[in-house]
Amino acid sequence: MQGQESNSPADPLLSRHLPRHIAIIMDGNGRWAQRRGLDRTVGHREGVKALKPIVKEAARLGIEVLTAYAFSTENWRRPSQEIDVLMGLLVEFLASETPELKEEGVRIRTIGDIRKLPLSAQQSLNWAMTETSQQRRLILNLALNYGGRDEILRAVNSWRHQTPEGTELTEAELNRYLDTAGLPDPDLLIRSSGEFRLSNFLLWQLAYAEIYISDKLWPDFGPADLQAAIRDYQTRHRRFGGLG
Ligand code: IPE
Ligand code: IPE
Ligand code: MG
Known about the structure:
244 residues, alpha/beta, Undecaprenyl pyrophosphate synthetase, 7 helices, 40% helix, globular, binds 3-methylbut-3-enyl trihydrogen diphosphate
């Protein structure tokens, strides 16, 4: 695999089993800013900056998929000025970081109903996805206008429209219609800012994920925190309902 040479053979993280897919709820940008007497949007700007080092570290470690919750179906409830800033930051992030991410072997893709995003965001995403479509080291899966319930409903409805009347829906078949089709389920869910909830994230796919809550606010979450989460994951005993 590309880039493995930069890994120290002594890196204890790599000598044990790694999660294939890590999902992250990047929470706490607003509080980060408010604690400094700044506008919430400043926190979002810092939050976007925090993502790249995490992606690079995940790629370095050999994680296959990193899914980052960037905007939920419920986040439309926020003031339109904050939403506009978030969408603008997405466009800026893609324009400025896609070349370097491509260089690092990162393939950008999305989950969520991106047809409801502003056109500028859709165009940037389509450009970034095409630009990085040949990269194979890490998938950066951006969850945008994503909600677990919305995803399941869209999947079931499109299955129903494409399937003869009377067919039973199976787990495998539903998996093929979800936005995450083709990806392994997340092994590890990380949420920053000390909140213990899913907030409608990957409701189906997180069925057996190990959960790690960090007290750090997202703009303060760095590669060392990702490593700490993975080390914690490596101590877990996953049983999947069995006795193993
Ligand atoms: C996460 O930070 C980013 C998004 C939800 C878009 P928040 O904006 O939720 O920050 P807090 O939770 O208010 O601190
Ligand atoms: C979850 O965070 C969504 C994202 C990080 C994009 P929220 O801040 O929206 O979640 P709640 O409202 O605290 O549950
Ligand atoms: Mg929040």
